[in-house]
Design goal:
alpha+beta; 15 strands; globular
């Protein structure tokens, strides 16, 4: 039977041992110099940490590990271990002996990145991932449906890698089983909608592929037929600014908001939530589209 506990270096971690940061985001972060994860320097806020692992807010455009579909994309496994080998103080002080990502996340997706800090914890995290004991919650933007449309969708199409393209396709004959649950969170008169996607076993491109199957293709997802981002002039027709003719968003509008990790504790509360804030430009887009995120306060004007 799979355990609902995470053992780190020979002892079990309780909820009280977790370090979840919300106030001092800038002070508790990990930095990457120019050229390591892109041309510009990056600092990623730490959203949770224990003796054996660390979770950060990963921006879009950065991979978590090497993957055949992501050739040429810088990844955090490589960058973290290079800095650890170079004895960067902010990594050494965390007691890490190596870094390894717990799960694969598309580089185009922003949100929670979870990394083990030693080999034993990496094995345990991967076992939890493989046993479907983590819970993933995503937010994404798509076109609004017609009035009276469904607000909850269960997707269970088996997925198979495409023969020539870096994408997943549904295949009942050869695809691998997986399940995604979609829930409508907000819809605006401007023709856009904010949805939540949850799953317990995350396959590559799963959210994107399942959303496309159910005609919920994600904004900015060219690979799966997603809609283009609207121009500011379409959302703010009465406002004149220098940027009015530019798209309101330039990335894939998909964010891994929360990962729930099982730990030792009572059956009803033996888990910890690792939560990544929406990127500022994502929050501004929601504001422009008049969409409400239940977890966020409206950004300041």
């Amino acid at each position: 039977m799979p355990s609902n506990r995470l053992s780190v270096r020979g002892h079990f971690v309780s909820v009280g041992e977790f370090f979840i940061m919300s106030q001092a985001r800038k002070q508790n972060s990990i930095g990457f110099p120019p050229g390591m994860l892109g041309d510009a320097p990056l600092r990623m806020p730490v959203v949770g940490e224990a003796e054996g692992w660390i979770a950060v807010e990963k921006p879009a455009g950065v991979g978590v590990r090497e993957y055949p579909w992501d050739a040429g994309v810088p990844d955090m496994d490589t960058a973290l271990n290079k800095q650890l080998q170079a004895e960067k103080p902010e990594l050494v002080k965390r007691g890490a002996t190596l870094f390894g990502s717990a799960y694969y996340l598309d580089p185009a997706i922003s949100g929670v990145g979870l990394f083990a800090k030693n080999r034993e914890s990496l094995t345990e995290l991967k076992n939890l991932v493989g046993s479907a004991e983590l819970r993933y919650r995503f937010l994404f933007v798509t076109k609004a449906r017609a009035a009276g449309g469904v607000r909850v969708v269960a997707a269970d199409a088996p997925l198979l890698p495409h023969n020539t393209k870096p994408k997943m396709i549904p295949s009942t004959a050869k695809g691998k089983k997986t399940k995604t649950e979609f829930k409508l969170l907000s819809e605006s008169k401007l023709g856009w909608a904010l949805w939540e996607a949850t799953t317990a076993f995350l396959r590559p491109h799963q959210i994107r592929a399942h959303a496309a199957v159910h005609e919920l293709s994600i904004l900015g997802d060219v690979l799966y037929g997603g809609p283009e981002a609207p121009l500011l002039s379409e959302l703010l027709p009465n406002k004149r600014t220098s940027g009015i003719r530019f798209p309101v968003f330039s990335d894939l509008a998909l964010h891994l908001r929360e990962v729930t990790l099982p730990v030792e504790g009572e059956a009803s509360s033996g888990a910890v939530s690792l939560r990544a804030e929406l990127p500022r430009h994502f929050r501004v887009m929601l504001q422009r589209m008049q969409l409400t995120d239940p977890d966020e306060k409206p950004p300041e004007s």
